[in-house]
């Protein structure tokens, strides 16, 4: 709607676009890779750090070895997921998000659980990515550390405005930072290894490793593994976005997914290895990646380049949620599970309500958690893996139900995927339960419940509004006796605005009553005197209101015996409303008419006529 | 209005009161003194401290002597003001606030300047008193120091709720703490003097006095004097509240005013003297009064009693503003200089809008200045003295104009008062200009400007609504040709809600057009098919909206050549609106009807009929 936005929105958001202009650019492999996978690739910027954060306080220097083991497990999981999702791409050329796959194959409830998990994840992705992007900036420029919440909120605001503008227009540009990030991190890994192993550099211990020597336990290892699983978030974006690829889109999507896995393998493995030989120690001021690159490049220009690339790719990862969640909400809203406003496109064709909602909720998370990535990450991976599991399990059921050629092989792969992701969900749920995962376990059922309620509401509304065959056979001619119409015109003071309303009322009925609520005897007497001077043959009813309530007496009168309208008669209330031309004018007037309307609208047999009276002030 | 408040307001605020229950308790001298003068008396809790705060950093130990001199000047000013205001009480038995006195005798602009100064002062009084009350508490319980802003805001909230409840019911209770404060401070003064002069106690130097020995300059002395003038705030409350006294009310008010002066003299002088002999040094943690009483009573129970009494009287001083500002705003609103909502009494008969406004604005000041009394006090006294000056000068003009018996004597007293207060205003304005007084010098003209604009607005509205003799001679019978009425019923989907609206429309006109804005070709075709099945002989107009704007095409159509309504014909738009019974239901529906109404109401010849359709969900 063009009118509800003030004019400066044109400057900020851009001019409105026609519905016909809706088209999205299609990508080949070269551009599809960086654009569809920034979320997945960017998570290597924090996943290794999360593992060390669990291990180091317990095991000290021994942590690095187990970090490598945990990383290996995660990389194994990554390849299993890649195989599974390649099958989803084949089965859902229109895009197979968890919500759709689960709803299709496992039923509504499973679909809603997947939808709820995804919703939480998208919101967390924005909060996490923006916070981690800020961490990359503040690691390079420590002065800014005290403003980290402010910077994070600013980044989110930029994303909101950018998406309201509809940034798809120039989306190829967004591929470049991903490549910059990939190349610079790979370069760091290669140079970091060469420096130590071939040039004989001995890394300094910049941060103290605690002198502890706890031994590894299964639980500790699983905790570390669970923490590292954040590296796998964003994988499903590719299978979700199949229609965004050029034809043959499924083939392109599968190539991208496979490439993505190898890139994550190289980067995640490489960073884990570097952390080991450079003895990076997670702390709240400098990220692990910054510690490593700071040593490798001695804080020269390449160090800053890596920090910039990291910050940008993290922000872009947040941006993928701004494409994902509004679309998911629109799909769920079309099914009746989310407020219908999410289906409306804004002036620039983006789903603006979803974009704004996402911006607000993620900002709230940032404020609540004071922009600290670690706390947010504890909530993060559970939801992702719940939706992975449902999606894989849905695919498994799909094959076992269809029994088409080769279904056993396919069912095995997705079934294995389901078992692995389910196991991981359990591991994450248990090991991180008290660190925040419990919040997610409360939120998901809550969201599912609300979605169910919304569906019931819309169904009920649709049922009650639906025309029966009988309704459609309604009398083509209505015999209306004009004399029978009940019309009430409330009066406060006798002025032009009231007279305009009264005159309108007189054109539709001969059965008018003027109604006055008296809160001040003096004012009422003055009014009555004036009214009698005016001398029109219309009765005036005065009701005292000792509690200075204006609406109550009117409603009471309409429903009373005294007023003879039967319960089947429509009572028409004509309200004069003066309209001031200056925006601040409304502050200066009691909005009594608005309250009267709100109250009266709750009654069945009422019609409210508003007669504007415009006050010119120019 | 009873209906817009949720039910828990009954618990918080209490049940509604009838207008007839409006009566205020009348006081004799015994209760009038503590109740009307808590603001004035409480300011001795911080005035002496403000003087020392100016002098000590420059003069060190020599400050105490000049503090006494400054205090003497202030006490002299106090007695002059007492004489002057006794005359105001005589002249204004209905209560002579600066706004009324200045408006009466010096004209509207002077009245508005006084009104603006008073408004600022009342807001500052709340902020200052609540902050100083918190300081009294935190001086006794230093743990609470880190929560001082929170405590201050809580105190303001208590005042707001208390005043919304209408605390006048039990107002005599509020006299007791004032007496407690007066007695305990006087006891402290007497015992403090006895201990040093008769019992040979040698006060310890608890806080270091800076080793500086700057000499007194006129400017420094005037700055100290200006700072101490905060002791005189609240004096005019008595002359303002003459009607609150028992008959003979003027006589009682004058006695109270005189007594008040002597009490302030004793307390202010006493505290200044004690500060001298006990070497109190202002700092940001312990107030001067607390330093003195802490030494005198060695931190025993009486020390805590004094702190409690101080805190309570300061809070009550804040409370006087909650009686004063809402009343002032109501008076100014009746004159048309403030939004009319300020004249409405809430459910408990208090001017609730004024009370809430005061609470919000003073809370904002507390947050901005982080609950620091000293910064707030720098803004404080200017406004008070501007209103003193205008009030005194107004009284002077009153006598010189009336020239009734004895006018010379009276004019001399008020004229002298005016000269002294004006001089003080200048002194305060200059010496405290850069410390904050400049804010007041910007705000007062701004507020006066806004008040002027409001008056113009109300006058214009009244002028345009006023009925001329001609209007009152309007046709007693209107010949209305029913066929000529232009009615438009917008349609989105053909459902029961729409049909209800259409059927209403058909009862008032034969000239109906159904109007559809198409944003989705498919949906439009479906609608048209259904409409033709329904087969009623009413034309349907379809307009495409490429920018998905619903209201624009409708407005354009109404104004177009295509639609034949002349500019003098009223176009009636009938809007179906469905009403959901659950509160959250509205979130789930586009409020398109509301936007349409808002846009259409800005047009002159329009009538909007809203037909509610209620969706039952129980």
Automatic annotation (TrEMBL), chains A, B:
<feature type="transmembrane region" description="Helical">
    <location>
        <begin position="214"/>
        <end position="235"/>
    </location>
</feature>
<feature type="transmembrane region" description="Helical">
    <location>
        <begin position="179"/>
        <end position="202"/>
    </location>
</feature>
<dbReference type="InterPro" id="IPR053153">
    <property type="entry name" value="APC_K+_Transporter"/>
</dbReference>
<protein>
    <submittedName>
        <fullName>APC family permease</fullName>
    </submittedName>
</protein>
<feature type="transmembrane region" description="Helical">
    <location>
        <begin position="149"/>
        <end position="167"/>
    </location>
</feature>
<feature type="transmembrane region" description="Helical">
    <location>
        <begin position="66"/>
        <end position="85"/>
    </location>
</feature>
<keyword id="KW-0812">Transmembrane</keyword>
<keyword id="KW-1133">Transmembrane helix</keyword>
<feature type="transmembrane region" description="Helical">
    <location>
        <begin position="375"/>
        <end position="391"/>
    </location>
</feature>
<dbReference type="InterPro" id="IPR002293">
    <property type="entry name" value="AA/rel_permease1"/>
</dbReference>
<keyword id="KW-0472">Membrane</keyword>
<feature type="transmembrane region" description="Helical">
    <location>
        <begin position="350"/>
        <end position="369"/>
    </location>
</feature>
<dbReference type="Pfam" id="PF13520">
    <property type="entry name" value="AA_permease_2"/>
</dbReference>
<feature type="transmembrane region" description="Helical">
    <location>
        <begin position="301"/>
        <end position="329"/>
    </location>
</feature>
<feature type="transmembrane region" description="Helical">
    <location>
        <begin position="411"/>
        <end position="430"/>
    </location>
</feature>
<feature type="transmembrane region" description="Helical">
    <location>
        <begin position="256"/>
        <end position="281"/>
    </location>
</feature>
<feature type="transmembrane region" description="Helical">
    <location>
        <begin position="436"/>
        <end position="456"/>
    </location>
</feature>
